[in-house]
Amino acid sequence: MLVAEWLPSPLQWAYLVLALALSYYVLSPSRSRLPPGDAPVRGHDLCWFLLDDQIPFIINAFQTMDRISLDEARSLVQARMVEKQDRLKHRIVYHHGRPCWSPDANFKLEDHVYADVNANVHNEAELKAYVSQHYTRDLDRSKPLWEMILIEDYTPSESVLVMRFHHVVGDGISLVSMMFSAVDKVPTPTAAPVKVGQTASSLSLLKNGGNNIAAAIGQLRPRDVSPYRPPRVSGKMRAAWSGKVSLADLKFVKNTFECSINDVVVACVTAGLRAYLEKTGGLKATARVRASLPVNLRGPSPSANRHLQNYFGIVYFQFPVHEADRLTRLHLVKARAASMKASIEPHLTLLGLSVIANLPLWLARPLLHVMSSKATLVFSNVPGLQEPCSFGGKRLHDVHFFAPGGFLPINISVLSYAHGVDCNVGADESVCDDPQYIADMFVSEFEALHALAKARAST
Predict the structure, then answer these.
(1) Domain CATH number, residue 250
(2) What secondary structure does DSSP assign to 285-311, as a single string?
(3) pLDDT digits (tens, 9 = 90+) for 368-398
(4) Residue limits of the O-acyltransferase WSD1-like N-terminal domain (predicted)?
(5) Closest to 345 (Cα-Cα) out of 297, 290, 288
(6) 182, 217, 235 — which closes off a domain?
(7) What is the predicted pLDDT for the residue at 225?
(8) To the nearest whole number, what is the mean pLDDT of the chain?
(9) Domain span including residue 163
């Protein structure tokens, strides 16, 4: 690849020079005092607040459970989430032109946890339409930026709780951790079936010098170009999700082909993207789809994820959608994932995003959008709980999670729960009118890999 391809455009260089020139002034400690109880929104949270200047940057999730009343749901959310997460009672205000956290003196749980009695949602197709309708609907900016909507009569025996949080409140890791910490009895922690990413030791980072140099240069990579990347997204998202894939079968496939569970999952997602490109005639136009992968940078302790915050870096991963053979695709994914281990890239992106977010807002927003243009989709693997759980005595049947829509047209989230893994897809209508096809092809590809693994094991 030519070095010139990695160099930023003159406009990007101009923004970079301005950022460096102004950073000392902006980051200097001489700030006006804030009202008691208020605090500035820090860089690693602030960047996700600034990115929604065009489309609200909302994380969506929902859980199906045994029938539950609104009073029961409110009582559980108050005791198990709100009272333990102070951020849920803070709203965003501006002081001296900068966003700050401020306690909401008029906080009422009823404003945030309510029932939609007119939802008329009674099956999976209607639920997908409902989640899609609310995907990018904005939250009330005068209140803390989250809400939970109860569909009490989803079926005669089931309710659905739809949860919506602005990304500034927390990232997927901390939000899912909060959700699962609120269950009746948290099972004994076990190894996460699907890894989002983890920090590496200082020694391993030093040993990985070659890849780290490449990662540093890679921060100058140009805008991603693919059929999934239109000049402008519509902001209208469609949500879809797959059926569950057995965790035991995933382990069988990864052991047979000597790779990781994460490799198998990414290979199946790659196949889903390739299948959709083939279906729509877009495969010839690209040999890759570049994804932004969040990497958790918290410590290994389970308590590190308990507080709502954004603390993750990003690595960029090329999905080998050009490769037709599924085993070759799996091996390509494995090789690329191995080259990214112990990379310094997520630390660099976290630092870069935090510094940019603290620049003057007129400069920070365009710079953040330049950084967001380096990928076409977000792919996140969110570890859940392997054992079935209950919430206030109500059995949790299923849990789904969706990364925000907005600056990237497609997001794919893989969540593990109750001995299974599913694929959740959110897609902007301007680039993908059938995200269910991608989710279904995820399962089809896994079934094909599982059949190959069984055939190999029997020989």
Answers:
(1) 3.30.559.30
(2) G-S-EEEEEEEE-S-SSGGGGSS----
(3) 888 877 888 999 988 888 889 999 999 999 9
(4) 82-205
(5) 297
(6) 182
(7) 56
(8) 84
(9) 39-182
